[in-house]
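Q: Can someone sanity-check these two? First one:
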Amino acid sequence: MRIFLGFFGLTRSLRYTIYSIRAQILMPLVESGVAATRYGHFHLPVTIRNSRSGEFDLPTDPNEVNLLELQHCRVDAQDPGLIAETLEIARSYPDCYNDDYASVRNICFQLRSLNCLWDMMQMEVTEHDWVVFLRPDLLYLDRIDVLQIVASMAKEGTDLAVPTWQDWGGLNDRFAVATARGARVYATRLGWLEAAAADGVHAETLLYFAAAVEQLRVARLPARAVRIRANGHAAENDLQCFGLLPVREAANA
């Protein structure tokens, strides 16, 4: 049995989150004597611009990814042409975020990143191995003992373990622990986008759909994580979800 760590998405706030990644994920592995292989695929825009998250033309640092000390890494420019076909399909369905498909566009990039990550990993990952998928822009609040989670999943015959919170009617896809089979489904669920998008493209319901169709056995992880923006600010609705921000303050934030 081997453990693989797969980082994906954006490294927009890694300078703020790297300490939690080291303390809550990497250190427990070191303490268990596990030398996990680290892969990463990322999109790198020139600047981060997202009015929904309060990020306005914030420059990115191409060297920030080095903080993860990856053995295998690929960084692509965030070229709209890379997701043009996927976004065109997504636009034929309702915009469930009501932001002119800006959030759907970000989901398309994230799904592409996962696909590219799996393309990199699949030749090395065997059916006996385990994969941990991680977003680098999350501040991990709790210790994630991967070896303990894997032992529990193996005992229960579980394919995929995802967080318990913010599932929005589907499955939270912020991070995950998976068997090789579960990892393939998690990373390549873009292939189910059209079949799952009757009510619009939504990351959590897409994962739920793919897991259901592929008949994965899913477990839940209580470990918490908060999205950190490129400006270092935490996502208010994440803080509110964990009781770290009063409802009235979140409403005025």
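And here is the second, same format, sequence then tokens:
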Amino acid sequence: MHLGKKDLDKADYYMSDQRRTTVTEDKDPGVVISSDMKSSQQQCTQAYSKASRMLAMINHTVVYKNSENLLRLYKSLVRPHLEYRTAAWSPHYIKDRVLLEKVQWRF
């Protein structure tokens, strides 16, 4: 991946005398980073969909819904999907934050 805006089309990278192909996005242990060093929209939507599915599963399977039980289930099943690698991909766009907060408000 070429980082920066200058000479993006002219950059050639070699390893052991073999030309490497350039990419615009790369996934490194669960975090998708683009060449402009911003997190991908894909990252946020994946976290949102996984957390939403877990929230729906809790809603459909739990019969006795008191606040203590629901909070424990939320913290153990839903919240990890929202917080997974956030230190690395930090949703800095407002639309991404709003998307992730929708799950919290639904809960």
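A (reply): Looked at the second one. The chain has four helices and four strands. The chain has a mean pLDDT of 77.
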